[in-house]
Amino acid sequence: MSDLNIIKLFEAILDKSSIIVGDDLKSRFYHIWKTDIPLESMCLLLPKNTKQVSSILKICNDNQQEVIIHGGLTNLVGSTKSNKNQVVLSLEKMNSIIEIDKNGKTLTCESGAIIEDIINTAKDNNLLLPLNFGARGSAQIGGAVSTNAGGLRVFKYGMTRNLVLGLEVVLPDGTIISSLKKLMKDNSGYDLKQFFIGSEGTLGIVTKVVLRLYQNPKTRYTALAVTNDYQNVLSLLKFMEEKISKNLTAFELLWNDTYKQMVSDKTIYNKYLPDNYKYYVFIEYMGGDFTNDYNTFEKVVIESIDKGIAEDAVVGRDEKEQLNLWGIREDVAVLAEEKKFDQQFDISIPVALIGEVIDKTIEQLENCDGVKTIFPFGHVADGNIHFIIGKDSDDDNLKSKINDIIYTNTEAVEGSISAEHGIGIDKKQYLIKSRSKDEIELMKIIKKSIDPKNILNPGRVF
Ligand SMILES: Cc1cc2nc3c(=O)[nH]c(=O)nc-3n(C[C@H](O)[C@H](O)[C@H](O)COP(=O)(O)OP(=O)(O)OC[C@H]3O[C@@H](n4cnc5c(N)ncnc54)[C@H](O)[C@@H]3O)c2cc1C
Predict the structure, then answer these.
(1) Which H, E and C letters describe 130-198, residue by residue?
(2) Residues 211 and 224 in one domain
């Protein structure tokens, strides 16, 4: 069917303002990270409800029309790229929060709701959505579900998967599968929602989500501790788990060059501790005792110095200091802006091996002509390390040399080439380094059985 004819079919479902075509597409972009790339698409559709999503997919499936799903466009693996023959469906108009159940501690919303809005709604009701990462102001909950997003509190609360109780999803043929139950336990047959969590929009469009919430903590404090020895990073984690396990909500790490860049005169962040240590650990404490929590946490941090585990530390007391400390950890755009071209990595490594694997990787990258900056950082307690590697050129040979260094070292310790960002388009060729041939075959069988015409997010993951 011609582009014009298929758009006519969409016009029977959506009002004109929800169908963007021609020159109006030029003001839309498919990525907001560092570069905004003009959207290439036959048309962009902005459905307002699940029924419209279903009707759109039915038309596309009947006409073998490929559809690319757009959430908040913050992914880092090229998964929302499209071409001029593809229809783009954006969930941005489906952003309402439908219900908050204070007693059951759940929140039900449409998938286009922005994560930060959900966090704030939960907070207004004295509840916590623990999902927390740098892109929360733009990323949508549907995108987080589809990528099984992680972030800063995974080791305490788990990935997005652990926070999803119910889902409504539209299959490629338009069938609506709605299971918006608020149950923590439901073993009545296959747990179908798991197919859609983390499958990067290849199996269905998530339209509604039921999230599990937690009691909102009354206090939040952050410490920055330093050491020169990775064994001490591990000891510090163990020490904190022993002393304050139920209050320990994040344990993050920056390497020296990354810290230096984040507190340099190019940023707005205060340098709380000198920049000559090898490791900078961010420890978050959340609790329920206004009167004593700060002192309890400070005491434990001081004890870690007295015992020689940390060499020095500071504890942020007020909101301003918390924001400054977390800015140093989270404002990774500063690292990407340093060089015109960069490559980003999101690997998983067994926690005990992180020190030696990253040392070896940095040494190999330093010997790689064309690499200008190396910024490692990450969610060390759950084994997830990121790299932003800056270059002055976009040379393909250099790109694959860098990929090979990082992924070979990751594969050697049975790590993962994608801890939380997904595979998208950019990492497809390296999937085999993390998953066996049989696993990939099984993924393809599942894809084929749910989307036999391969219309939904084709070419992503494998
Ligand atoms: C500064 C920064 C920091 C980040 N930090 C983290 C981090 O700590 N942890 C982490 O996990 N990620 C992180 N990310 C990556 C990114 O924010 C997450 O992958 C996020 O979950 C993507 O959500 P989104 O709404 O932007 O989805 P998009 O980028 O729009 O889409 C991502 C994928 O999901 C699909 N999709 C989107 N919405 C739906 C839907 N409703 N139904 C089906 N498929 C859909 C898309 O087609 C695409 O394949 C970071 C990104 C940035 C820019």
Answers:
(1) CCECCCCCCCEHHHHHHHCCCECCHHHHCCHHHHEEEEEEECCCCCEEEECCCCCCCCCCCCCHHHHCC
(2) no
Is there a single domain that holds both residue 200 and residue 170? yes
Q: Which of 38, 60, 90 is the last residue of a domain?
A: 90
Atom of ligand 1 nearest to the CA of 144: 21
- Integer Cα distance of 88 and 65 in angstroms: 11
CA distances from 408 to 76, 373, 415, 416, 422 (A): 20, 20, 10, 10, 18
Residues 127 and 186 in one domain: yes
Residue 296 lies in a domain: yes
Q: Are 285 and 269 in contact (CB under 8 A)?
A: no
299 and 348 within one domain:
no
Alpha carbon 157 to chain centroid, angstroms: 15
Q: Which of 194, 215, 236 is the last residue of a domain?
A: 215
Q: Is the pTM of this model over 0.85?
A: yes
Residue range(s) defining the domain that contains residue 28: 3-90
Q: What is the pLDDT of residues 222-274, one digit of tens each?
A: 999 999 999 999 999 999 999 999 999 999 999 999 999 999 999 999 999 99
Supply φ then ψ for residue 133, to 5 degrees: -150, 165
**Distance between CA 441 and CA 395 in Å, rounded?**
32
399-438 confidence digits (pLDDT tens):
999 999 999 999 999 999 999 999 999 999 999 999 999 9
Residue 28 placed within a domain: yes
Q: Whose CA is nearest to atom 27 of ligand 1?
A: 143
Tell how far the Cα of 201 is from the centroid of ligand 1, in angstroms. 11
Exposed / middle / buried, residue 292 (Cβ in 10 Å: 0-12, 13-18, 19+):
exposed
Cα 143 to ligand 1 centroid, rounded to whole Å: 5
Collapsed DSSP state (helix, strand, coil) of residue 242 = helix
Asked whether residue 63 falls in the same domain as residue 101, the answer is no
**What's the total number of domains in the chain?**
4
Do 290 and 262 lie in a common domain? yes
Q: Which atom of ligand 1 is nearest to the CA of 145?
A: 21
Residue 458 lies in a domain: no
Angle between helices 230-244 and 354-366 (to 10 degrees): 150
Give domain status of residue 38, yes or no: yes
The closest-lying atom of ligand 1 relative to the alpha carbon of residue 33 is: 53
